[in-house]
Structure formats: C-alpha cells, structure tokens
Specification:
Oligomer: heterodimer
Strand content of chain A: under 5%
Structural class of chain B: mainly alpha
Shape of chain B: globular
Largest sheet of chain B: none
Number of helices of chain A: 12
Helix content of chain B: over 70%
Structural class of chain A: mainly alpha
Strand content of chain B: under 5%
Order of helices and strands of chain A: HHHHHHHHHHHHEE
Radius of gyration of chain B: 20 Å
C-alpha cells in the first residue's frame, strides 16, 4: 500500500474512531442501565454468602487478608446501606460479613463499632441481634485491649439495647481505666448506674456516640436517635403539663391550645423536625402523624402514663 | 463485502489448532471425569449443582486464559515474525486484518467452548442419568461465557496493537477483574456522600465493560430461568462493546509505523 493511501486510511480510521467510540460508549451505558434493572430483579432474594467461615477465608487469602478484610468491609457497608429502612428488609448476612471482616483483620476498629450500632438495631433498621453485637465488641476488646472506645460501645449496648445498667456501668468504668480514655467515661459509669433508664441518660450516650465516630452511617443514625429522644423528652414535659391541667381543672386537655390558654406551656410546641405535637386521647400528647421521627417502642406515648 | 477478514480468521484458527491450543480439552475432560466420579461420593444431594458449577467455572476460566494469552500475541507475534509486513503489502486493510484476527480467535474459543460444553453435558448425564428442562439455563450460561470471551479477546487484541504481550496481559486482566467487580464500583457511587467521588465512580462504572452481568453460573446451577430480555441486552451490549474496542484498535493500529 502506498504511503499516501496509508495516510488516507489512517485518517479515515481515526475519524471513524472519534465518532464511533463516544457514540458506542453512550449506547453501552444506556444499555447498562436496562441490564441493571433486569439483574436487580433477578438478584432479589439471592444474597447467598457462600463462604461464611472467616478462618477458612483467612487461610485461603495467601497473606492478603488485610486487603480481603477491606473488601469485606466495603461489602458490609453496601449490604447494610442497600437495606436500611427498606420495608421487609432482612439482614441475615450482616453478622457473617462482620464476623469475616473482623477475623480477617482483627484491628479493623470501624467494623466493631459499626457492628455495635447496626447489628443491635431492631427491625426494620437492623437484625436486632444485640447478643451478637456484644460478642463482636467483646472480641474486639480481646484483640485491641487498648481501645477504650470499644468499652464505650459495650456500655452503649448494655444500657441502650439490653437495659442491663449494672453491666453497662461496669463497661464504662473498665474503659475509663485506660489512660487515653475521655473523662466522661467515668461520668457515664456513674450516671448509668444511677439512672440508666432515664431518657436524658440515653440522650447523653447517643451524643457521645455521635461525637466519637467518623462513620457517616453511625453519625446519621445517632443524630436520628438524638432527635427521637428530644421528641420523647418534649412529649414527657407536655404530659406533665397535661397532668397539671387535670389536677387544676379536673379533666384532660383536648388540644394543645387548651394547655397554652391555661398558661401551662409556652413557646413553639413542636418536635425537632418542626412538626407540632398533637393531643391524643385522655390528654396524652403525641407526635404529629406527619412527623418523620420514629420513637423507640419504650419511649412512645403509651409509656407516658 | 470483503472476504479478507474471513480468510484471516480461518488462518488464525488453523494456526491456533496447529499450536495445540485445543489440548486444554484433555485437561478439562480429565477434570470432568474425575469430578463426576468423585462428586457422588462427597457431595450428597448437590451432585448436579457441583458438576454445573465446576464445569461452567472451568469453561469460563480456561476460556479467559486462552483469550488473554493468545489474544495479546495476535498482532505482536505477526510483527515479531515479520509476517505482518508481507501480509500488509497485499491489498489488505489494517482493520480487516484486525477483524480477521479477532474472528479467528473467537472461532477457536467457540469450538473449544462447544467441546467443553459437550463434556459438561456428558458428566451431567453420568451423574443425574437424565437431562431436565431447566438445564437449558446451562446453555445460556455458556452463551454468556462466549460473550464475555468475545469482549476479553477484543480487549487483548486492542492492547496488543500498541504494547508488549506482558503489558497487554496485565492491562486486559486488570480491566477484566475491574469489570467483574463493577457492582462494587457502582456501590461506592451509591453510598458515598462525596459528589466528586460519586461522579467519578459512576463514570467508571459505565465506561468499564461490565463482566459481572455475564455471570449466571449460580442461576444455571440452581436451574433458575434467565430473562429473555437479559439475553438480548447482554448480546447487544457485548456486540456494541466489541465494535467500540475494535474501532479503537483499528484507529491505533492504522497509525502504527511498521517500518
């Protein structure tokens, strides 16, 4: 082939590629969107975790267990993130995934801390396995005895999830012995032992969780819980005012306005999301049905009286 | 229509056969015979599933190895042996040569994969004594493996146009592995709060060839149906992507100074 015709064919090939490659890329991407929709429906309910033994994976990883742990950690976040708050979501693989991750890398602190919060969450937010979360955190403490924050997580699990305030106090106290531990660990130990069941104590615990994590999912969850506890505290105060009203007038108020008119409450009577509280039957204040706040079952209006 | 790509393809296939590439079938046959005999002893109740999983995984792995290792040498070898110069002195366009090479290796892989599928069918019949309607999904899985091999071959050929076989192997393997983990990349884009990272991972997800979607081995082992739409879309996707890579390869190869 002559040089001239070769140059000509080269220019033609370049021009063709310049036009065809971007067009084909766009077509492939558009097609990928449709394939994603098909494979999503195919993969629903097909969430098998074939190898559930962290020990086996560790032995098969040929020395790459830290890398494999990172990959599994990514899977944990994606697995949980894909399900969180979805109606009917189940979390069967959350524990095995966390178990494998921490077996592959026992120093991966974030996995223990994530597990403490989300493994213990009740459905639909988590699998409600506080027992497994305690096991996980205890394993973390055994592997990382210098990490005082794991004692904070253990205290959190015992007080918030398992309502075992003595064990919670012990955990905070044990953690506070670490020279690097924050001073509030001691305060928390005393507070939980004294009034573990109080909403104010729960709020304090969640505030510390919020302040001491870098994980965005945990942070968001802690912020939600703090808002829910603030709402519960608001309801509690309103309920006290409602009882004062009953003592004064011999009947319960039927609306918030009646409470306000009686001079028993003032200011904006709304939850942290900005939705006004409403008066329920028998003068029991409730969250506005439109409010996105979800109260813990043992903090709801039925627990007020 | 030009016959040249077909002629090049036939010659590439012949060359592969001469190079004893199909000898891998002996390894596959021995593995399937061994598995069929052993599986009955060690895996009660899931013999059929084990055979399907093992057979399809082996077909895929052997195919990928062949596609990469033969593909990266397709153009490079011709240049090394200087046979390319005499070929291109004839009225053959460079893109025709590339398409022919691609077709030849694909033909080799199709023959190889078909023979392995027959072996898998024989092992399956030996283990369960019959074929079921749901076994049709195995053929879909094999078809998807072939689509995957076509993409890998095109990638290997693309890299072999401008770099050494060693680097081509690394690049092709790298893209293949990244493509298999495509859902992980998409997962990052879905859950990250960082918009820049989200944009980058989304872009990578759509630009990378998605090899994950060709994996229906688990569905075949469980006898699950694969939607017709997915077969059609995967076919179209592979065809478009192969066209894209070959267009790029032609542009690169046509600019190479072969003196």
């Amino acid at each position: 082939m002559s040089r001239r015709s070769h140059n000509k064919s080269h220019i033609r090939a370049i021009l063709l590629a310049l036009v065809a490659v971007p067009v084909l890329f766009v077509m492939c991407a558009a097609l990928q969107v449709r394939i994603d929709a098909e494979t999503r429906s195919m993969n629903q309910g097909n969430e098998e975790l074939l190898v559930r033994s962290g020990w086996l994976l560790k032995n098969l990883s040929l020395g790459y267990e830290p890398l494999l742990a990172d990959i599994y950690w990514t899977r944990v976040v994606q697995y949980y993130g894909a399900r969180a708050r979805k109606p009917g979501a189940t979390y069967e693989s959350l524990w095995p995934l966390l178990d494998i991750t921490t077996t592959l890398d026992p120093k991966l602190m974030i996995a223990y801390r994530f597990g403490a919060v989300f493994l213990s969450e009740r459905p639909p937010v988590g699998p409600g396995r506080a027992d497994l979360a305690v096991d996980l955190v205890k394993r973390g403490i055994a592997e990382n005895p210098d990490e005082w924050r794991l004692y904070q997580d253990l205290g959190f699990l015992y007080s918030i999830r398992l309502k075992d305030y003595q064990k919670a106090s012990d955990a905070y106290l044990e953690g506070s012995k670490n020279p690097h531990a924050q001073i509030w660990m001691k305060v928390m130990a005393a507070r939980v032992a004294e009034s573990g069941n109080a909403l104010e104590t729960s709020r304090l615990i969640w505030m510390e969780v919020y302040a001491n994590t870098k994980d965005e999912l945990i942070r968001r969850r802690a912020a939600q819980q703090i808002r829910a506890l603030d709402a519960a505290l608001g309801l509690k105060k309103l309920n006290e005012s409602s009882e004062d009203y009953w003592r004064k007038f011999g009947s319960f108020p039927t609306s918030m306005q009646e409470l306000r008119d009686a001079g028993l409450v003032g200011g904006a009577l709304q939850d942290p999301e900005g939705y006004p509280y409403v008066m329920g039957p028998n003068g029991v204040p409730q969250l506005n049905p439109k409010s996105p706040i979800v109260l813990d079952p043992d903090q709801g209006p039925n627990k007020l009286r | 229509m030009s016959m040249i790509p077909g002629v090049v393809a036939i010659n590439t296939f012949r060359e592969a056969v001469r190079d004893r590439v199909l000898y891998n079938l002996i390894f596959f046959a021995l593995m399937m015979i061994g598995a069929a005999i052993l599986v009955g002893q060690i895996s009660i109740g899931i013999e059929r599933m084990v055979i399907v999983n093992l057979g399809l995984s082996a077909i895929s792995a052997i195919g990928i190895i062949m596609a990469i290792f033969i593909g990266v040498g397709l153009v490079y070898k011709e240049m090394e042996k200087r046979t390319l110069y005499s070929l291109l002195s004839k009225p053959i366009r460079r893109w025709e040569f590339l398409v022919g090479k691609f077709g030849g290796l694909l033909l080799t892989l199709v023959v190889n994969t078909s023979l392995m599928t027959l072996g898998l069918g024989a092992a399956l019949y030996f283990v369960s004594g019959k074929f079921e309607r749901t076994d049709a999904t195995i053929l879909v899985a094999v078809y998807f493996i072939l689509l995957e091999l076509a993409l890998v071959t095109a990638l290997a050929l693309f890299f072999s146009c401008f770099t050494s076989p060693m680097l081509s192997t690394l690049y092709t393997l790298g893209i293949y592995v990244a493509g298999v983990f495509a859902p992980g990349i998409q997962g990052v884009s879905q859950f990250t709060q960082n918009w820049a990272l989200r944009a980058i991972t989304r872009f990578i997800y759509y630009v990378l060839p998605n090899f994950h979607d060709f994996g229906v081995i688990a569905a075949a082992a469980h006898g699950d149906r694969v939607p017709l739409a997915l077969i059609w879309h995967n076919t179209l996707y592979a065809a478009l992507y192969v066209a894209l890579i070959l267009a790029g390869a032609s542009a690169v190869f046509s600019g190479r100074n072969l003196k």
